[in-house]
Amino acid sequence: MKRCLSGIQPSGQLTLGNYIGAIRQFVQLQDEYEMFIFIANMHAITVAQDPKKLKANTKDLVALYLAFGLDPSKVNLFVQSDVVQHAELGWVLNCHTYMGELNRMTQFKDKTAKKETNISAGLYTYPSLMAADILLYDADVVPVGVDQKQHVELTRDLAQRFNNLYGETFVVPEPVTAKIGAKVMSLQNPEKKMSKSDENPKACIYLLDEPKVARKKIMSAVTDSIGIVQYDLENQPGVSNLLTIQSSLSGESIDELVAKFEGKGYGDFKGYVGDTVEAFLSDLQEKYRAILQSGEIESVLEQGAKNAGNIAFKKMRKVKKKLGFQLF
Ligand code: AQP
């Protein structure tokens, strides 16, 4: 069975973008692949985190993964820092990554664009750690949103570089992006990605938002003055984003939605999307609360880390041998 791996950072409350761009695919792929899904807490600390919030966000993230239907009997679900080999291989790959490559990473450039000081070295070398996450498990496919695709491309280059230098060691992975919704945009600035660390809470639908509050956010989403519901990313990015959200949650095609709202105004359209989002969150949160009460999270993570750790240990032994680290 081929392997699939992906992770999400517990760097804030998860957004609808994280679901539509990433988690939705994890759930679809779990029957086809041997899955490794982790909580990327080592990535999260590349920017400042409050330890209490980090802990709470980590637990929420696991509960949400389970509420969305990730099945622990099919998926190895674990916390990144529980498998030490991520850091170990991360260092090795750091030593094989060129600064020129890291300088070209658009996510680093975006995240540091407005910051002049206190940018951590970890944020800069984040892509090498991400490559380690993927290569440790010989992942064949990595489902990600568009923003992370460049990092998977770098991972491919690193795998090939290492294999060429030391002999066949790593599987070269393929990124997989959703056909619709690979980049859900901010509700307040549809030129920008919906991001959990956005300072404006109105820009994001958080998965744990009060469903009625989420509906209001949709109602106050920035659109345009054209007044026609149609998919036009260049001239109507806000309306196009709402079409994407609706289509991803309900399964209706964009064309069906455009036909449905022909001759109708943005108020009607937003009300429709708002109702969908409200119902989606109510259902999700009911499951999320039940999972938190069930107390199953700890045992799921323990088993996940054990399974992942066994594979990572073997891979790291192989890497160490190749590097000349393993003397006996
Ligand atoms: N707006 C989005 N649309 C589609 N996919 C998205 N993803 C994130 N935002 C969107 C995808 O979610 C997965 C997990 O992302 P992450 O938390 O590891 O890192 P990120 O891409 O940096 O996500 P955020 O929400 O923007 O976090 P912060 O604000 O902390 O940086 C990835 O597959 C990502 O593509």
From TrEMBL:
Residues the record lists as binding L-tryptophan: 133
Catalytic activity reported: tRNA(Trp) + L-tryptophan + ATP = L-tryptophyl-tRNA(Trp) + AMP + diphosphate + H(+)
A GO cellular component entry from the record: cytosol
Motif ('KMSKS' region): 193-197
Binding annotation for ATP: 9-11, 17-18, 145-147, 184, 193-197
Motif ('HIGH' region): 10-18
Keyword Ligase: yes
Assembly and binders: Homodimer.
Function: Catalyzes the attachment of tryptophan to tRNA(Trp).
NCBIfam families xrefs: trpS
Protein name listed in UniProt: Tryptophan--tRNA ligase
Name of the coding gene: trpS
